[in-house]
Amino acid sequence: MKLLGAVVALLIAFALGRALYEYQEGDVDSQLAAAEAQLTAARAENEAALSATVTVLLANVDARPDGFRLHYSRPHDPDYVRDQRLIQEWGFLEAAIDGLNSILVLPEQVLIVLTECGEAEAYYLPESREVWMCHEVLKESRSIWEGFRPRPTEEAVNLGMSGVFAFLLYHEVGHALIDVLNLPITGREEDVADQLATYILVESGVERYAVQAGTFFANLPAEAPFWDEHSLGAQRSYNVMCWMYGYDPVGNSWIVDEGRLPEARAERCPREYEQLRTSWGGLLKPYRALVAE
Asked: Does the pLDDT value for residue 118 go beyond 50?
């Protein structure tokens, strides 16, 4: 599980790196292709082999005090202890942070914290430059998957919860980037952060995590107030499905065929996704890091 989480996170990092480098001149495709080839080879090896590969690929990440950093708080609820153990065994957070630091240069530190919050949320706190990933939202996503009938296997429940966790992490990273880099955006920041999370996941080839996030949003209780800064759960679900379809209308035609997205919206989704991709690529262009040789 830990090997899978690390490989997924690093593939996400290199896919985002490829997207960002499309906005500059120079031969970087060969570097990224070589990096992906090394990761593919590492899939069949043990964790020691993956660790050695990661050390080489991320050699440009030094001990500087800026960039993304990670902290695990100590949970007290037995369910949270179980979920934290799952996240740590998955290895996704550590590898995701290494991957982000390998492709983006931030002017200061952003701390990512897995902690108890008292409510099912994930936050970015601009005053302290912290992302809080709350145990309660992991519990909520677990309960949604366990409530499906027929009841999914424990492995399917864990994978569903992990997919939601990955989406929410990159959503909150979007908030952090907007704040720390003072990125100019128009429209609601929550929708823009959803765009970044979807963009990272689909460009990296782990669209199933975006699907799981869309499923999660579609099954949230319909009780959010209309004045809230977030779109309603159903709207967020349709948006994620639209951007996934727009990324690959042929490969993701099942989204329309299975009724996850109306055809009236789907016909505009390729243009929506291209606009999303161009916008985020341009915003992050000045902050890209060099790929280690």
From this structure: yes
What's the DSSP call for residue 104? B
Angle ∠(48,114,120) on CA atoms, nearest 5:
135
Nearest alpha-carbon partner for 171 in 145, 205, 132, 197: 197
pLDDT above 60 for 179: yes
Are 209 and 167 within 8 A, CB to CB?
A: yes
123: β partners: 132
The predicted model scores a pTM of: 0.80
Residue type, position 187, single letter: G
More confident residue, 43 or 168: 168
Compute CA distances 250 → 194, 253, 269, whole Å: 23, 5, 12
Provide the Cα torsion 204, 208, 211, 212; round to 10°.
Answer: -120
